[in-house]
Each structure stands twice: as C-alpha cells, then as structure tokens.
Write a structure and sequence with these properties.
Order of helices and strands: EEHHEHEHEHEHHEHEHHEHEHEEHEHHEH
Number of helices: 16
Shape: globular
Helix content: 40-55%
Bound molecules: pyridoxal-5'-phosphate
Distance between the termini: 51 Å
CATH topology of the largest domain: Rossmann fold
Radius of gyration: 20 Å
CATH architecture of the largest domain: 3-Layer(aba) Sandwich
Number of strands: 14
CATH class of the largest domain: Alpha Beta
Structural class: alpha/beta
Number of domains: 2
Strand order of the largest sheet: 3-4-14-9-10-13
Strand content: 15-25%
Length: 397
C-alpha cells in the first residue's frame, strides 16, 4: 500500500486539484516546480538553517516520567510548543515563504481561523520583507483580537471576511477569490495539508521534519527509531502528517489521529470529520468533509479553534480508508481534563488542540511499557481564557 501522493496528486481516491480555470496556471506552475525547488541543495540549506536558528529546531523529545508511570507506558512528548511563534505552523510557513521567493512571487496571502497560521505567516513575511494579506472571518477577528494585533504589528493587513458564518471557511473562500484576481504576483500560503494538489504533499513534506527528528531522537534515547504508537490531533492534519510522515511505511507503528468531538457526536456539535462526514470536495480537493445531504458544508464545533475545520486533508482521508490510521475522538471535556493533567504533572501548559491528542491516552489500549510519542503541537498561552473558565468551574465545585 502506498500512503504518499501519486503522480496525479491522489492518495487513493482522495486528493486531486479541483480549481477554477483562472487558477490553473498558478497551481500548475507550483506543481511543476515544488519538488525541484524543495530538493535543491540551495533550498535545503536555507530551510534547514532557518529551522535551526530561527525556529529553534530540533524541538526536544521529552521523556515524561510521571505520565509514563501513570499510564504504564514509556511516554515521550515531541515539543513543537517550544518553537518560535508557539506551534508547528512555523515549519510550514518558513518553507512556503522560501518557495514563494524561489517562484519569484512578491505578495503573500493566507487564511486564518484563530489567527495562529496568520501570525506564523505574518512572521515570515516580516522576515522576508514581503507584503502580507491575511483573510480572517469577521467573527474570528472579534474573538481573537490578540492575534489580530500581533499580525498588524508584524506589518500584515488583516481583512475580515463578512460572508457566511464569518469564520475559517469564509476566510478561505475570500483568499481563493483574491488569488483568482491576482494570480501572477501572489503566492497563497495554505496553513495545513489541505487544498488542491500539490499543497497537501508540499505542506506534509515541510512538516515531516517532526518525524525525521523523532526517529533520530528515539534512536538516541532507546536504541530504536520506531515507537509503538504516535499520537497527534487532526484539524486539517498538518501536525499529524508531520508526526506520521517518516513512519507511514513502518506498519508496526500505530498512527493515531485524534479528532475534536466538541460536545459529542450525538449532539451534532462536533468537528469529528471521519465520524460525522462523507466524501466530497472542499477547498480544491476530494476528501472527507461534514456536509448536508445536498452538499452544503456543515459548520463544525470544537472548543479548540485550530480543530474546528469541516474537512480534513486527503492524506488522512486515505489513512482512514485504508485503516493505516487509527482515528479516535476527544470531546471538549476530555481535552480540558487532559490539559490540566499535563500541566499539573509536567509543568507544561499545552494548546487545547494538543490536549486532544493527550486525551487519547485514556482511550487507547497499550501493551505494558510500550513506547508512545504524543505530538505537543503548540503551547497553551492563547487558550488561557478557556483554561481560566475551567479553573473557575473547578473551584466552584
Ligand atoms: C492550527 C493548530 C492545529 C491544527 O492544525 P493541523 O493542520 O491539524 O495540525 C493543531 N495544534 C495547534 C497548536 C495549532 O495551532
């Protein structure tokens, strides 16, 4: 079985490039050049140096003694939370800003939900001296002001999307519209392993540094590059793709993807695409998505802004289809409990997204002493409002 993309841009029956004709030359040009550019010595050297000196890589692989004892396993945490800007997203934006320069693009656009990808994009645009326009749903602009202010301080223009529910999906539609109107000058930095081919593959390759380092770090610590289980949360699926990438063909490694289940599948207030979704086309690719019977996109819900996307990358749809991936769900409550557990046992405040991955420790069966890696995709600073509410709830009990 093959888990990486084929020459036509497909993972099994998922993927492809379903795009308006106006974007065809742009996407085709990227498709023709991305591998050649990424694999060139010059690009690799610059990318690797920036990951090291600017992002702070390699991110540590930390052995969690107390959690290991509690769960009867050997638990390692991959610390993407210590990266510059606070999550794995910078791995992708660094790669794509270099790609934009190599392609001769002068203007950068991006979509953002909670603002994390917007901040990571504005950051690399500042460093590169490129114009940056970030589309963000008007609802999200209002509720994520600190990130809006960061983007503005970094020199980006934030444009509120006023259509639909005024959230991520609408911001993405606006970004695509802008790209259609400015195809020559502009590179669109997509924030996850979604969108038309070659984006899912390109983003997965930029993020694959996560599992590349995991292999080396595990080898050094345990004498074996292979863990028994790797766990990551899935919104669009980029941190999971990065954590799984160099293990896709090691079938002994269980790959666990954790979806956000909001208030629970039965309530309909969920973002668990594999459980609640079906195949369809969203933002340029054939994948699993949450939709009504007549194909209208259903608004997802999760406490975690990074996970409430109505689709999922085509790689993950394929991992689900082939059963190479194990998909589990964690509710808002599961994630809050897991976030407090890690904080109190290890002194690490995780992002709410990453807390969903941690919540899977309670849902999976483990062999005694097996080696487990949880990808801590980001830090919890941005989630203090939710954590503050949870502390209040706990004190009132
Ligand atoms: C954006 C985000 C995610 C979700 O995005 P993926 O593409 O699914 O990785 C997960 N964790 C953090 C910390 C994020 O900021």
């Amino acid at each position: 079985m093959k888990y990486t993309v084929d020459s036509k841009g497909y993972y099994g029956r998922f993927g492809g490039a379903f795009i308006p004709e106006m974007l065809y030359p742009n996407v085709k040009n990227l498709e023709k050049n991305y591998l050649k550019i990424m694999e060139s010595e010059e690009f690799q050297k610059e990318f690797t140096t920036l990951l090291k000196d600017y992002v702070g890589r390699p991110s540590p692989l930390y052995y969690s003694k107390r959690m290991s004892d509690k769960y009867g396993i050997n638990l390692y945490l991959k610390r993407e939370d210590v990266n510059h800007t606070g999550s794995h997203k910078i791995n992708n934006t660094i790669g794509q800003i270099l790609m934009a320069r190599y392609l001769g693009k002068k203007r950068i656009i991006a979509e953002t939900g909670a603002g994390q990808h917007g901040v990571a994009t504005a950051t690399v645009c500042a460093r590169e001296g490129l114009d940056c326009i970030v589309f963000m749903g008007a609802t999200d602009v209002a509720r994520q002001m600190p990130n809006v202010e960061k983007m503005q301080m970094l020199g980006a223009t934030v444009i509120p999307a006023e259509s639909g529910n005024k959230t991520l999906k609408d911001a993405t539609n606006e970004a695509i519209r802008d790209w259609i109107n400015n195809p020559d000058e502009t590179h669109y930095i997509i924030g996850s392993v979604v969108g038309p081919h070659p984006y899912p593959d390109m983003v997965a390759r930029f993020q694959s540094v996560i599992s590349k380092e995991m292999r080396m770090q595990l080898e050094e610590k345990t004498g074996n590059p292979l863990p028994d289980t790797v766990i990551a949360c899935v919104g669009g699926g980029s941190n999971a793709a990065g954590a799984f990438y160099h293990y896709l063909n090691d079938e002994s490694v269980r790959l666990v993807a954790v979806e956000a289940d909001g208030l629970g599948l039965e309530t309909g207030e969920t973002a668990a695409t594999m459980a609640a979704g079906s195949p369809g086309i969203i933002h340029g690719s054939m994948t699993m998505l949450m939709q009504t019977d007549d194909g209208q996109i259903v608004e997802p819900y999760s406490i975690s802004a990074g996970l409430d996307y109505p689709g999922v990358g085509p790689l993950h749809a394929h991992l689900f289809d082939t059963k190479r991936g194990t998909f589990v769900r964690a509710t808002d409550r599961d994630a809050l409990d897991a976030a407090f557990e890690l904080t109190r046992m290890e002194g690490i405040i995780p992002a709410l997204e990453s807390a969903h991955a941690l919540a899977a420790l309670k849902k999976l069966d483990f062999k005694p002493g097996e080696t487990v890696v949880v990808n801590i995709s980001g830090r919890g600073d941005k989630d203090m409002e939710a954590y503050r509410a949870e502390m209040k709830r706990r004190n009132e009990k």
